[in-house]
Write a structure and sequence with these properties.
Blueprint (H helix, E strand, L loop, with lengths): L24 H11 L3 E6 L8 E7 L4 E8 L4 H16 L9 E7 L2 E7 L3 E2 L7 H17 L12 H4 L6 H8 L5 H8 L10 E3 L8 E4 L4 E3 L6 E3 L3 H6 L1 H5 L4 H7 L8 H18 L11 H20 L8
Antiparallel strand pairs: 1-2, 2-3, 3-5, 4-5, 6-8, 7-10, 8-9
Helix pairs in contact: 5-6, 5-10, 6-10, 10-11
Length: 320
């Protein structure tokens, strides 16, 4: 397997976030009132690709909390994402592998979420087999827990949610010189044949949304935009990063129970769908609020394309 031509973004250092001191005094006062004690230390969390406030806060009473916040006026799209994350987090059952949301403030131009703090770390980068095994086992158990999705949680089905993604291949084909690109685009158009299902699918499983806790659990963060779909989708999406880091994910597909009964063609269809999405959006303008996001999307797109080509027996680069 050849490495992607674009290096992976700096793990754990991709976000440019608001700091505690940057929050307006009324918002800081609100947070301290909710936490029950003054904040004496704030540690900003630099993973991810959004500029909203996200910090571990230590209070004068010694307690630790994880708080996220975004301004509705200044960071409208991110505030909307936090609002959705709060709505979805409150609907998750207690046995779901997620950090617990303790409180929500959605008024006065700010969306603020207060989560329990857990002692944990992100998966190692480059990925290790042990971390991947732990995360895959969590996702397998989560699929059982979240089938069917929690009662009363309004979400799109995967077929509806991904309906615009095959069209991304028009830009991909016009921008990138990919042999067999048209065949890949045709695969992506078949996505509705394989992504449907009755499981609550997170949809954005990557290292910066995973926590390996000191007590042996694995938790999944960032439940902003889950959908109802096939139980194996999250596990396949997870494999993109490990594949790019050099792990043998084909062995995972062949042996892990999550993928038992999943047709190879179904895997290829989803890989093609993701490839077009990431390569196309890697060509979007770079937002000042997230300087690494396009490089991250290009890295994922190249990993996916090389993986798909290997599976289909296609040359990943044109003959010269």
């Amino acid at each position: 397997m050849s490495p992607p031509t674009v290096p992976a973004v700096p793990s754990g250092r991709t976000a440019q976030r608001l700091e505690w001191v940057h929050l307006p005094p009324p918002v800081r006062a609100l947070v301290e009132d909710r936490l029950g004690a003054p904040v004496v230390r704030a540690e900003s969390q630099r993973s991810g690709f959004t500029p909203g406030f996200a910090s571990v806060l230590e209070c004068a009473d010694g307690s630790l909390h994880f708080v996220k916040a975004a301004s509705v006026k200044a960071q409208r799209s991110f505030a909307a994402a936090y609002r959705e994350e709060g709505r979805k987090a409150l609907a998750l059952p207690p046995e779901a592998p997620a950090t617990r949301l303790a409180w929500v403030h959605d008024a006065d131009d700010w969306v603020v979420l207060g989560f329990e703090h857990v002692e944990a770390r992100a998966p190692h980068r480059p990925w290790t087999d042990d971390d991947l095994d732990a995360c895959l086992d969590m996702l397998s158990a989560a699929a059982d827990t979240l089938t069917p999705p929690p009662h009363g949680l309004t979400i799109d089905d995967a077929v509806t949610d991904f309906r615009e993604w095959p069209a991304a291949w028009r830009h991909t084909l016009a921008t990138f010189d990919l042999p067999h690109g048209r065949e890949a685009a045709a695969l992506a158009r078949r996505y509705a044949e394989v992504v449907g299902g009755s499981t609550l699918v997170h949809g954005d499983v990557r290292d910066d949304n995973l926590l390996l806790t000191d007590d042996g659990r694995v938790l999944l963060c960032g439940w902003n935009w889950p959908v109802r779909g096939a139980a194996w989708l999250d596990s396949l999406i997870l494999l993109v990063g490990p594949r790019g880091d050099g792990l043998d994910v084909e062995a995972v597909l062949a042996t892990h129970p999550t993928f038992a009964g999943v047709e190879p063609e179904a895997v290829d269809i989803v890989l093609a769908l993701l490839t077009g999405y990431f390569l196309t959006h890697s060509d979007d303008p770079v937002p000042s609020s997230s300087p690494h996001i396009r490089d991250h999307q290009l890295w994922q797109g190249e990993v996916l394309w090389e993986w798909l080509c290997e599976r289909r027996g296609w040359p990943p680069e044109p003959d010269r």
